[in-house]
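call fold(seq) -> tokens
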Amino acid sequence: MDEAFVRVYCPACPKSPEENLAELPAPDEPFDCPGCDERRTAAEFVRTPATSKP
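ret:
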């Protein structure tokens, strides 16, 4: 099976790494930014078309 990756956007720093979707926690679980160690819920790191900045 192919792995799926999603770009995560840190609200506290300019980093936007790709993360393995299967390894991301549930949306309401904590997630640490790999660039600055900011801890927020995983949902705050994932953008959808409605929340993406142009």
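The first strand starts at residue 5 and ends at 7.
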